[in-house]
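tool_call: predict_structure(chain=1)
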Amino acid sequence: MNRRQFTTRLAALFAAPALPASAVSAAASAPVTAPMAVSTGASSWASYLMAMHKTCTPTMLKSVLNVSEDMAQTLHSRMVSDGIIQDGNRVVREVKQRIKSALETPDMPQTRPAVADDLDALADIWFDGWFEAHADYVPNELKALRSRDSLRARLENMLETTDVVGPVGAPVGFCTVKGDEIYQFYVSPAARGSGTADALMQAGETRLKDSGVKIGQLWVIPQNPRAIAFYQRNGWDGDTVENVPLDTAEGPYLLPCRILQKAL
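tool_result:
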């Protein structure tokens, strides 16, 4: 659209002509006093820019009103103060920030169902991750029950409810659900910070919802603040600490755990 068409449409929308050249010249050369009156024409141009572009910046006013940068800034500030327009600079900043965040956010890794060829790698991830998080805080009796072979044997019965990230035979993390619970959740150190944990949590929550669970739960030892912070960031919360029955090859083992829940 050329300048003449732009002016004609503005006049039709607001029944007010663009700011006359003589008025613009006089306003630009006159000293700025407070409060400064905003002409109907300038107000109409600004309102039109808001209607067409959802924003109105001093630079846009400078162009359509043919005034100096200082005058455009003064008019803009006054119209924002009077509620004629929104702060166009803020709108532009927010749009730029959303674009920047989208560009900097890595793509979430793809999850897939676990298969038998994943068992050895999953047993390693579970064994190493469990001892990293628990070894300093649980009795030796429980540590003795957490052998790699015992975890691999349990994994064989969990494959149908387990999602993983990574190629077949070399997964880097897994999430298993059981009943209404995020049952086992571990990510290898090399994959932390890559979005793997978020993808696996999403997969686990989807499994729970698809099975009809309304309130999911998970257990975590109170001495694991890193895990608790991750779960809370994903909407899980709760302060209750109870002795819960952990599954082992020799039967349930009671251990104090913090119980977190989330509405799904």
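agent: DSSP finds eleven helices and seven strands in the chain. Proceeding to next step.
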